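User: My advisor asked me to double-check a structure prediction for Beta-phosphoglucomutase before group meeting. I don't want to rely on an old file, so could you generate it fresh from this sequence?
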Amino acid sequence: SKKAFIFDLDGVIVDTAKYHFMAWQKLADSLDILFTPEHNEELKGVSRVRSLEIILGLGNVTATEEEKQKWLTQKNEDYLSYIEKMDDSEILPDVRETLEFIKEKGQGIALGSASKNARPILEKVGLLHFFDVIVDGNDVTNAKPDPEVFVRASKLLGVSNEDAIVFEDSVAGIQAANIAGMLSIGIGEKSVLKEAKYCFPNFLHMDTSFIETLIKN
Ligand code: B16
Ligand code: MG
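Assistant: Sure, here is a fresh prediction for Beta-phosphoglucomutase from the sequence you gave:
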């Protein structure tokens, strides 16, 4: 039967984490909060609102709802100005080739991302046309490790959870896939993504024969 291949965005398709970092650091600086690349690691796969809460927590800063809204808007405006110049050179190694292979095999392709900016990013890097379904931060209420984003994606593709395969770089995302009963494939370090069923440093290390066995099984 047809499979659903669900891709996370940041850390799997493109490295937008560096732009998130620049934008969050600018905000943190203005609030006199020390925010390092190590801190940024903890924001991967985390929603925008939750990210702000974590950063404010680092500086023991309390704020009103109004202030938080203002900062979230500011951060996103800065982020949008950074991603403005993105093009296909920012696609991570072998991602396009992997999407092409899955497409040729007639399988379902979905995006399952926490980002509210997923569509414009896919469009900028020229990958939007590969996706049959896009589920992102605009569509879901529960953040990963809640499986809502992936469950919605497989449902829209008309594929059962058991026939869904998730590519994820975050621990929470791997947990979400596992909770949904989907096959979790970590993209990144095995020592971090311990709970993933399979793990690859990137798509260059994943043979097409591996994808073929996923389709057959
Ligand atoms: P936005 P993913 C996530 O993308 C990022 O990893 C995370 O750092 C970010 O806060 C989140 O999207 C929300 O992004 O501010 O653009 O709505 O890994 O789920 O594709
Ligand atoms: Mg990610």
